[in-house]
Amino acid sequence: MYKQRFYLDGKLHKTSEKRDVETLRRWLNNLEAEWSANIGPLVEAGQFDPNNGHTITRVSPDELLVITTGNKKLRFVNIAVKG
Fold this sequence. Notes:
By secondary structure, the chain is an alpha+beta fold. Helix content is 19%, strand content 41%. The protein has one domain (2-80). The chain has one helix at residues 21-36; strands at residues 2-8, 11-15, 53-60, 63-68, 73-80.
């Protein structure tokens, strides 16, 4: 079984329930497609931030990195858990 973890600027924000790895990889595929559909440029401090993706990197089938237009770093990773 696996869990999906979401980190925002290096801090753990959310962990999913145990699921099979195929489901979690499908979730990452959907996240990648959603962020990729809304690519935008980095914004200056104080400007309106639509919080779209600026760079999207699929490190592996189980890890997705997103840098938003506001320069926030999001990391989605699937991890194996016992039991």
